[in-house]
Design a protein that fits this description.
By secondary structure, this protein is an alpha+beta fold. 28% of the residues lie in helices and 36% in strands.
């Protein structure tokens, strides 16, 4: 029985097929029967370029548990990358001022320092 669970997102990046890299245009995430892996239902990730031939595709099939672990790893890597961009490279928006307990404004960073 097909689940019809499909999510499509715009993708900017590159994927590799054989010895060649190609630009991506979409990422397709689905939950359905495995087509290639000797598993039951799987999360499939297809990275494609709709402007190129049908072979412009990089696909994987993952167990639900593996997909969850990958999601957690992505979340950690994204959080670290956002910190790198904001704190190290200074590309973040200035911190918002929020009222402190004493009625004065303070930034999140100032509040974090006061806790330490």
């Amino acid at each position: 029985m097909c689940t019809s669970i499909i999510e499509i997102a715009r993708a900017d990046g590159m994927a590799k097929r054989g010895d060649e890299w190609f630009p991506l245009s979409q990422a397709v995430v689905a939950y359905d029967h495995a087509r290639h892996a000797p598993l039951g239902d799987v999360i499939t990730l297809d990275f494609i370029n709709t402007d190129l031939d049908p072979g412009a595709r990089a696909g994987i099939e993952l167990t639900l548990e593996t997909a969850k672990a990958l999601r957690a790893a992505l979340d950690r890597a994204i959080a670290a990358a956002e910190f790198e961009e904001a704190e190290v490279r200074g590309k973040a928006n200035p911190p918002r001022r929020q009222p402190s307990r004493a009625g004065h404004s303070s930034t999140t960073k100032e509040r974090e320092r006061s806790v330490l």
